[in-house]
Amino acid sequence: MMNLTNQTAIVAGATRGAGRAMAIKLGEAGATVYVTGRTTREERSPMGRKETIEETAELVNKAGGKGIAVQVDHTDKDQVKRLITKVSEEQNGQLDILVNDIWGGDPLTEWGKDVADHELEKGLQLLKQAVQAHILTSHYALPLMKQNNAGLIVEITDGVDYEYRGNFYYSLAKVSNIHMAKAMSEDLKAYNITSIALTPGFIRSEYMLDLFGVTEENWQEGAKVEKHFIASETPFYIGEALKQLALDKDVQRFNGRTLSTWELSEIYGFKDADGRQPHWGNYYKNHVEK
């Protein structure tokens, strides 16, 4: 069902993982998707991963949409401005969906260290990428939505509340993403723009599969390294969640809320790519908190 055929989206941070899956799922519904990130076939980001934005754009095309790869470091306001100018010129000023999934913070997070012991520059760089970059992107992108008096903005986070997440900088970043969505929902009410935060559960990204030495085919073996991995979900779970939100004509009922893959799977009735319907919220309550 190609219900997003006439819609334009930016998935900021779509090189791999959740960002890639969300871009593909929007493409599956027919959207034109600008996929951004730092890694191209010619240049790798400090993450050192092999996945590229060109690959993501090709997968969007294969799914049925139109994928447009644009190399952008979202901490650089001039690069963000060039992206938005490109979208505006190519799409006649139309931007319907903005997904802020910029991260790259895994090598910057020093788990087990408090704010005094954590390397300061790594922590500040994490906040620059996971908070400031989201602000810059929203600042330059939202005027397109405002002039059209419509739009959906989605802040990708980790968790649904304001509880501590085990590391000072990581926690500050993810809680900030939630509050940015809430703040924008209040700021932009007059423009018919819906702003929400969206979280996956324990996500089986390419990075996590590599970390646990498994593939998607034998991912359960990763539970031998981290037992809670057994409750993980593929990136396509959050991709499907986003697609359903984008297709929902009454999405404004969620304005200002923080939503999860497991809650939305119950609301919309979708399943993960492997046919499962993981519910990280229940699993966390029953197996992690205890």
UniProtKB/TrEMBL annotation:
<dbReference type="Pfam" id="PF00106">
    <property type="entry name" value="adh_short"/>
</dbReference>
<protein>
    <submittedName>
        <fullName>SDR family oxidoreductase</fullName>
    </submittedName>
</protein>
<dbReference type="InterPro" id="IPR002347">
    <property type="entry name" value="SDR_fam"/>
</dbReference>
<dbReference type="InterPro" id="IPR036291">
    <property type="entry name" value="NAD(P)-bd_dom_sf"/>
</dbReference>
